[in-house]
TrEMBL record:
Domain HTH cro/C1-type: 20-74, 96-150, 171-225, 251-305
One matching Pfam family: HTH_3
Record's keyword terms, sorted: DNA-binding
InterPro entries per record: Cro/C1-type_HTH, Lambda_DNA-bd_dom_sf
PANTHER family in the record: HTH-TYPE TRANSCRIPTIONAL REGULATOR IMMR, TRACRIPTIONAL REGULATORY PROTEIN-RELATED-RELATED
Matching SUPFAM superfamilies: lambda repressor-like DNA-binding domains
Protein name: Helix-turn-helix domain-containing protein
Amino acid sequence: MTGGESRDPDGPGAAVPPSLRAVRLALGLSSRAVAEQVGVTTACLLRWERRQRTPSPELVAALAGVLRLPVEQAAAFFAEGTEHPLMDDTMPGYALRALRKDRRVPPRSIAEALRVTVQTVYNWERGGSRLPVRLLEPLARCLGMGIEELVKALRAARRDTRTVVRLRGELASLRDTAGFSQARVADLLGVSRTTLRRWERGEVVPPWQAIRLMATLYQAPLAVVAAAAKAGKPRFLDPENWLPGDLPEVLRVLRQWNGLTQAQVAEHCGTSTATVRGWERARQRPRPSQCHRLERLYRLPHDSLLRAYLAAAPTSDRVKRDAC
């Protein structure tokens, strides 16, 4: 089996690869190559391999495709639990800029000493990625200071430099936390990097469609992303604004605003994820009993969802509409 995975022939469930890293190396793939194909940063991929973070279902599927694993098998790896729950082999590098300036060490010298790119050094300084602990010793030598002194300076600067990250905007911080590059998100949203940069700087409020997509990508509640984008609240949160035919959009916005997945809504309503997906795509309509469960879930007035229902069209009208 690929990567030395094991399976109990008589037991249920998918085979769990002992290490995604082992599977990747067995295929002769570098962490950077896999990260680029999945559309995340190399640091994010390495955290997945150590089970320090769990990717979204969409990214699990993408990772499984690159590693030539069944999706269930890749998902089972993360379901096994956290490998290093208390260990973080990285540190914030916010203080690095001040340290190297005090010692008049240019970023290129640090990049050469640590065998990384100059852009990586800048990325540590702005908080886009974290400084690996394994590089502390050569970094301390490059800066002409002891390791303990360096670690103390890095840790002390963590709280004082959080405002530096805020200057980039909360949207950018959400993107960094999710492990996406600006170029990758811009490509997924179908906009230019300049447009995304303006959204992240707060110069322009992104449209709701883009905010919903970012909420999905960043695995964050719609309310959090909307607040970061300074977009206020969508009209679909207020039942008084609902019109006949708004039900699919209403259900989608309510779910995303509350930070719920389709699977969680399905479990609450006693139905399948596919059915909830059908509600949000106007392929199906929830039954009255399911509507009442949705109203309790979202703390809505009784029978308020009926306002957003579209009256059933005659068969001939439905055929014409489906043919369009």
